[in-house]
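Notes to self after the Tuesday call (sharing in case useful).
The group wants a holo model before anyone commits to mutagenesis around the pocket. I volunteered. Ligand is flavin-adenine dinucleotide. Logging inputs and output together so the record is complete.
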Amino acid sequence: MASHSVDECLNALGMPKKAQNILKTYWPYLGARCDKLDFAHYATMLERYIKTYPAVPSMKSHELSLATEDVIRNNGGNIRYNAEVTEILFDGERASGVKVGEEAFYSDYVILNCFPETAYKKMMPENKVSRKAKQLVNARKTGSLFFTVYLGLDCYAEELGIEDYTVFLYESPDSTIQYEDCNDTNRLFVIANCLNRIVPNASPEGTSTLFLTSLLTEDSWGYVEPQDYKKVKNRIADKMIEIYENKMNISVRPHIEEIVIAAPPTFARYLGTPNGTPYGYEMQPWDTMIARIMSLKKERFISGLYFVGAHGERSDGYSTTYACGHSTANEIVKEVKENGRI
Ligand SMILES: Cc1cc2nc3c(=O)[nH]c(=O)nc-3n(C[C@H](O)[C@H](O)[C@H](O)COP(=O)(O)OP(=O)(O)OC[C@H]3O[C@@H](n4cnc5c(N)ncnc54)[C@H](O)[C@@H]3O)c2cc1C
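Result:
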């Protein structure tokens, strides 16, 4: 299954097209097209949604960060906020620490959450980056870009008839066409989320929030000229609200009290990822989750330096990126125990 696409496997099972379309609804969670994405990866994600269910922390995803912070501090660790790592330090060919501006921090093991290409280009001398490392990051494809419209509404979600936490609003039932729609800012799909449906007090009494998300490719956003930025941003947001209102038959415009629009440059500013993608590298037939896991050790080009995050072997999503950090940390703990480093 790992070397065959979602489409190939569902066809091999003889599944009717309509059932396939329904099962493939969640593809934007992995941001890869179903005729290229490997079935093993998609099936694993879907099975978890169906069998163990998705969950939202009552204090939103920030609660996960706060819980992690507690564990780190309670175990003698330290956290520096607003501290951008600007340089990797080396002891010969081995990574030996990081620099935050003028301040240096030394360690036998360095785990970076930023993209490898960012580290290679901006945080170390070129002679530390092997030809193979450069070729690999160049061969990989940057993941989908996000466009999100956050709406603060002046009434409860129920008053408007908003019944679900998430709805996927596509123009076509065909997932390949849906993926191709991301190439054109005039042909959008919308994923609408209303957090209050799961966490009723997610916003002050008498209000609710709704956020609408669409995926874009580097190509579609790449055509936007700096002078057209505001115009395009407002056009896309307007279109997304229109799609939501028309498809759901719910009028939200008269109830909008607050609106914030996050376009790819907004995500780039906060995340520091290439073109602002929150999704790491897009999964491709030669670059599947299983292929990445199998070649993980071979892709560690610099001794002492590890990468974790959505660009890692399990790709994007909270659970998978936490799992990526967890398995990397376990590997290092094992090595420390065996070799006594640190
Ligand atoms: C609108 C939206 C909705 C989403 N919804 C869901 C969802 O419902 N469920 C789900 O599972 N996933 C969801 N995702 C995806 C999920 O957020 C990502 O896949 C995940 O957060 C990626 O984890 P990461 O560790 O790779 O990167 P991030 O979570 O972006 O963390 C990387 C961190 O590194 C910091 N950083 C970067 N460079 C440096 C540097 N040089 N020095 C110091 N710090 C640095 C960044 O500031 C950032 O805080 C959503 C994403 C978006 C944008």
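Two things stood out.
The chain has 13 helices and twelve strands.
The longest strand covers residues 145-153.
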